[in-house]
C-alpha cells in the first residue's frame, strides 16, 4: 500500500490508501470501521488511475461519500 490517510465522522473511521494495481496503474481503497469494532469493510474505487495522486483523490471522494451515507443519511447503527 502507498499513500495513507484517515478520516473520522460520527462513530466511523475511514482509512484511505492507494495501491499499485497493475504496472503503472493505481487504485484507491477505503477501509471503514466503527469505533471500538474489529470488523472492517473494504471498498475499492471502481476506476484505475495513471498516477497515485489521482487514485488518492478518487479514494478520498469515495471515503467522504461512504461516511456521509453512514452518518448523515441515517445509516449509522443506533443503540437503544
Describe this structure in words.
- This protein is α+β, with helices and mostly antiparallel strands and 80 residues long.
- The protein has one helix at 52-72, and strands spanning 2-9, 12-22, 25-34, 41-44.
- The model has no long low-confidence stretch (mean pLDDT 86).
Summarize the structure.
By secondary structure, this protein is of the alpha+beta class. 26% of the residues lie in helices and 41% in strands. The model has no long low-confidence stretch (mean pLDDT 86).
Q: What would you call the structural class? A: alpha+beta
Largest sheet: 4 strands, antiparallel
Percent range of helical residues: 25-40%
List SSEs in N-to-C order. EEEEH
Low-confidence stretches: none
Strand order of the largest sheet: 1-2-3-4
In round numbers, the mean pLDDT is: 86
Helix/strand layout:
Blueprint: E1 2-9, E2 12-22, E3 25-34, E4 41-44, H1 52-72
Antiparallel strand pairs: 1-2, 2-3, 3-4
Descriptors:
80 residues, alpha+beta, four-stranded antiparallel beta sheet, 1 helix, elongated
Amino acid at each position: 500500500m502507498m499513500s495513507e490517510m484517515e478520516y473520522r465522522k460520527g462513530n466511523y473511521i475511514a482509512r484511505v490508501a492507494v495501491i499499485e494495481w497493475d504496472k503503472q496503474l493505481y487504485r484507491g481503497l477505503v477501509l471503514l470501521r466503527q469505533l471500538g469494532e474489529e470488523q472492517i469493510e473494504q471498498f475499492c474505487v471502481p476506476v484505475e488511475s495513471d498516477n497515485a495522486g489521482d487514485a488518492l483523490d478518487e479514494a478520498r471522494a469515495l471515503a467522504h461519500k461512504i461516511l456521509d451515507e453512514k452518518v448523515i443519511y441515517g445509516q449509522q447503527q443506533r443503540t437503544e
